[in-house]
Sequence to fold (946 residues):
Amino acid sequence: MNPRAEILGHIRASLKRGPLSAEAARALELRLAGAPSIVAERAKGSAPELLGRFCEMAKRSGATVALVEDVRELGREIARFLAQESLPRALRMAPDPGLDYIALIKQTGFSIARGGADPSDRVGLTGALAGIAETGTLMLASGPSLPMTLALLVEAHIVVLARAAIVGSYEEAMNCFRAGGAHVLPRAVTFITGPSRSADIEQKIQYGAHGPRRLHIVVLETSP
Amino acid sequence: MRVGLFVTCLVDLIRPSIGFASLRLLEAAGCEVVVPAMQTCCGQPAYNAGRRIDAKDLAKATIAAFEDCDHVVAPSGSCAAMLRVHYPSLLADEPDWAERARAFAARCHELVAFLVTVRKMSSVSSRLNGVAAYHDSCSALRELAIHEEPRRLLAQVEGLTLRELGDGNQCCGFGGAFCVKYPEIAARIARDKLAAAKRTGADMIVSSDLGCLLHLAGLASREGVAISCRHVAEVLAGEIETPAIGEGRR
Amino acid sequence: MSEPLLRDFPTAAKRALADAALQQALANIPAGFQEKRRAAIARFPEWDRLIDAAVHIKNHTLDHLDFYLEAFEAKVREAGGGVHWCRDAGEARDAVLAICREAKAKRALKSKSMIAEEIALNDCLEENGIEPVETDLGEYVLQLRDEAPSHIIAPIIHLNRGQIADSFLGAHRKYGKTRRLESARELLDEAREILREKFLTADVGITGANLLVAETGSAVIVTNEGNADLTMTLPRVHIVIASIEKLVPSVGDAWNVLRLLARSATGQDITAYTTFVGGKSRAGDADGPASFHVVLLDNGRSEMLGSGFRDMLRCIRCAACMNHCPVYGVIGGHAYASIYPGPMGAVLTPWLAGIAQAPHLPNASTLCGRCEEVCPMRIPIPRMLRLWREREEKAGLSSRSSRAAYSLWAFAAKRPRLYRRLARLFARIFSRMGKDGKLRRIPLGSAWTDTRDFPAPEGETFQALYARRRKP
Fold:
């Protein structure tokens, strides 16, 4: 017997039954589209409350957060961050058309190259599909616009997040992938909460294990 | 109210004063107490060793010995848990005994939990000068959910200051056969427990289980740690004439 | 370093108790893992409801595991991935090897996987000319030291900075590093630098999976470092290796479990990186592998499903049990001689290795119940430890002297009159042997008196005294 048949056979033998009836299978298929989740209190609230909670939770996770009104303020904030962290005034930005406007900001004091991260790139800038207030988490997804190296190989990861993209829970964020009930996901959906870290050495947290040491989230009030 | 005192084999063999203290407390609480002569052991050693048949035989004998009592009370968290929590599952596969065991278990209690919850005892008239840390035995705490009851009554003992161990209710390392199968591990866990007691400034550990107390007192004695061990029944009944566990006459 | 034998638990435990460096490392657990978990739960009022839901989800999934595995497989295939069903460790190793050979792989990145350890994958890869590179910092250090992990989520909890520095000094010389590093920061930075080169030049990335999601054919992988995301993205082949009980039905079910996992494990609300991944790179994607495979491992799980140990299949590998175990807390993980130590290991290891290979593990427990109390899947570990003890008894694995002692005791305990007479005898004898209220030595009782005094009995039994008091 082939391994697949044998394993399924053992499972059914342990459960003391044969294969499920078509009816039972149909009921389970319906369940696959998702049973209701428990929504935590901290994932609920008005838009201003969720914004406040997102910022609070993101900071708690070791990220830094800045709120900016518009595109020009965004440019200034990025420059300020780079200077503060003594980082080079050069960053690699995702080839995301939704970020094109950043490349158009005049006289920012920093240069932008597009594409995936080179090993020599120290700062990466990406967007995020959503910000999740529950834990100050960012949702990013693979696709033409996001080489994950920008979020992983760099020293500092800057994320530009539209204020309107902040939701309460992870499930709410992933609703954008629903296609008539069930989710249809891109290859990778990554939830990032704070900078990369390891506590493997004597159980003390150190930032920047493989991934970025700094995560800076800039919440943009008015998207262009 | 006819209460059967389940003495426990350790109390019977090693420290009867706990049994008499229990008697006094129960009588002060208005109970008519009987001590069935046919009781021997709750069967826990066999149960924990995987000797299911022996455990069942002892369970049946215990149930039979106490069947005419309204309640069965044991001055031990682990024995009370055996009777109350484990007898029903132990005998669940025997049609003649399943219901009998369930009915019996519902009438079984640890001593202090019985006094506080069933007899509504709210005060004691004993005195003991000292600083005591209360050690919740694992069975009393996790199997019987006993935590407030002994503290409520011990707070009434004149002259006694009660401290919390602050060790996250960690086990003392006795574990029945465990402490003789793996004595070095057991001793190390007990050492940590005594150190936690010392850190609170206590000179005494009080607990509901004689097994825990024998283990802790034995280690304290061997390693020269100045902590006395007493059973909660003795403290509440004012039985302080008896030297603490493992200590000689003064 | 050579590993202690599976059967030699008592010796290994004694050695661990005397290991000062280990003891110092273990002493961090109460203020570390225990306190962080407690604080995280205190901040999350929905905790108990979450556990209720998770237990229900897992039980439901196990009751329909065949359906969900097939649904999962269909989705993976739909996304252009391969699914390999493996009955045992050998088949799983063969499956991974075949994929690596087809890809002409020379170097394989690995992000932390207990299943990869369970099937001894690294040795197999090396024997076949493929260099496995552990990317999880702890696993990387273990790889350098040729040492086994001692904890399922903090694999080098038993090591201090100095020991890690020594290992780096030895292993990194060939990269031109000759300075012995001092701080954790320096160690981390050097590991990051050296592993970067490996990340960029590997052919295959092998990850484990914390969960498998049937609805979408995804593996869910959580890390704090981000190494799994690099491992699953940079090389041209991504292999997920996971055991069959990792399934949950839907994305929402996955989040229910994920909300429990990090809080139970490290006291974080969520790990820094949590990724749902499935399939190869899609047309137009900026990155990702050209091929994707899931290796599904049974290795005894399908049989466990029908056994008295079925509840163990709900385990999400959070390590809360071992973080709260009084025994693990003083002997550490290596003494268990298994990649699965502590309470969950004491149940799982005998199943995987056979109880005759690990006879001590279910016995080296006081049955204190703290593991069950903290388990976010309500796994009744003490009950299953007792079940193992029953199996050992039936299989005649307990020592002859132990069995004889219990038989004598049971004989007496079932005969009340005999019991009372013997009890009176022992009470009198041992009372007389006592000095200042204790015995320093008991004949045949060295198992107690080697480490402790024994409080002397009062001299008479309660039953005898009570009977006398009742007679006027």
Summary: The first strand of chain C starts at residue 82 and ends at 86. Residues 404-470 of chain C form one domain.
